[in-house]
Design a protein that fits this description.
By secondary structure, this protein is an alpha/beta fold. The protein has one domain. The protein contains eleven helices and 24 strands. Helix 8 runs antiparallel to helix 9. The chain is globular.
Length: 458
């Protein structure tokens, strides 16, 4: 009996510690900063007019989940993309500020084109060839990185307990349409871009392959909502390229929903919309922007109304990471890219493209791996993916676990550019042309990784 009592004295504190760890309360912190670039800054990585006026502010916003192991951060920027060196540095900075690992930080862009893009490595490379600040405003990017990290840290003091999570979905009418319209020969016959409605053939063609649903995840403290996350797959452009910094129709829809829910923090993520845009329903006129915004907001409202709450605890939350090397397409040769970058007779836009291609090629050839991640919330799973991913990946993920709630945020590491399906690379079209830096076998790499992240067992 004395021996048993001694054992209890020794192991009771350890048993209590284990129990308390299992029963740690799940909490959520919300943060947001202004991420609007100063006038004169490059927009869309130098592909459009620089910032001439501020039409609407840009934001970086996110949440920190606490209690399920080390903190988990989900963050979305109103920027065109954050890639390569910037993707690594931003995640490291945010992780440091909240006391977690970079692998537990999911960082995404909404891909508005009248917005900056950040890539410290490419900007540094360009600066050595006399092209500084043509691609990005690296000083401003670094300032924003510090501010978003500080905001994430400061938010921890105001974290609130999470007792329930709610899941919902709603159909979005007349916004998304596939950009690649195939002809009888199976190749791209019409390239329907964001304002494709100007072309009668593009306007009259079917929507094509899309995901029509906006999906919603909301966190609750009993009967009080704390924050809502939404996910929808489409390019977010209505019109762009005129130097007017703005968050476009996705930002407008997000603001509408925040206002209708009395300021409830709303973080929106762009799904796998690489080959999806509003082209069937948009002719690029200014009148279309609020119309598209209202249609998306209506879908978000349907998702909100459809949501079903269920209790959640820290033990129901898990985080999975899978790092993958992405195959570089054979048309990208390091020596040829360097020669183009060094040739001052080349158009500036070609030299900028060569630099970002070269940065990605060197990273992949040097053994760098890009992290994919999955947040598990009970029966819900949120995948975090890189690049301008084709919508087929999002639909495939949903088929992998048809009985569960599966949603996706793409536009993570912007380095790879467009990521098509294997068959798409033989069909022609813009997305699988020069703007994709990966080889067709990327499909096998990502599909295998998604199966692992979603714990699919054959």
């Amino acid at each position: 009996m004395k021996y048993l009592f001694t054992l209890l004295l020794v192991f009771a504190p350890l048993m209590l510690q284990a129990a308390s760890a299992d029963e740690a309360p799940l909490r959520l912190a919300v943060f947001q900063i202004d991420a609007t670039p100063p006038l004169g800054s490059p927009l869309c990585n130098g592909a459009v007019q620089p910032a001439m006026e501020i039409v609407s502010p840009l934001t970086a916003r996110g949440v920190v989940l606490l209690g399920a192991g080390e903190p988990i951060v989900l963050c979305a920027f109103d920027w065109v993309g954050i890639g390569n060196g910037s993707y690594d540095e931003f995640r490291r900075s945010i992780a440091r500020s909240v006391g977690t690992k970079p692998a537990r930080v999911a960082l995404h862009a909404l891909h508005q084109h009248d917005a900056p893009g950040s890539d410290f490595a490419t900007e540094k490379l360009l600066a050595t060839h006399g092209l500084s600040r043509q691609f990005s405003n690296a000083d401003f990017d670094a300032e924003v990185m510090e501010r978003v990290s500080a905001a994430a840290k400061q938010s921890l003091a105001k974290a609130r307990s999470v007792t329930h999570v709610a899941l919902g979905s709603g159909k979005v009418e007349r916004v998304a349409s596939n950009r690649r319209i195939l002809g009888p020969d199976g190749r791209v016959a019409i390239q329907r871009q964001s304002s494709g409605g100007r072309n009668p053939a593009a306007r009259d063609a079917p929507e094509g392959t899309i995901d029509p649903l906006v999906r919603l995840v909301s966190f609750w403290n009993d009967d009080k909502p704390i924050a809502v996350l939404t996910y929808y797959a489409t390019h977010p452009q209505s019109y762009y390229g005129r130097g007017g910094v703005n968050w476009d129709f996705v930002g407008m829809a997000r603001e509408m929903r925040e206002n209708s829910l009395s300021g409830l923090p709303h973080i929106h993520f762009n799904g796998a919309g690489g080959n999806v845009a509003a082209g069937k329903y948009n002719d690029g006129s200014k009148e279309k922007r609020p119309l598209l915004a209202q249609r998306l907001a209506d879908g978000m409202e349907r998702a909100w109304q459809s949501q079903k709450k269920s209790p959640i605890a820290a033990k129901d939350v898990q985080w999975f990471v899978k790092k993958v090397p992405l195959p570089v397409r054979d048309t990208l040769v390091e020596e040829a890219l360097l020669a183009k970058l060094q040739d001052d007779k080349q158009p500036k836009r070609e030299r900028l493209r060569a630099a970002r291609d070269l940065t990605f090629v060197r990273r992949m050839n040097g053994g760098h791996q890009i992290p994919l991640s999955c947040l598990k919330l009970g029966h819900a799973r949120v995948l975090h993916m890189p690049g301008e991913l084709f919508v087929e990946y999002q639909l495939a993920a949903q088929r992998m676990r048809p009985d569960d709630f599966i949603t996706m945020a793409a536009y993570g590491d912007y380095g790879p550019g467009y990521i098509g399906t294997k068959i798409a690379y033989g069909q022609g079209g813009y997305e699988t042309g020069r703007v994709s830096r990966v080889a067709p076998k990327v499909e096998n790499v990502l599909m295998d990784a998604m199966e692992q992240l979603l714990e699919v067992h054959h």
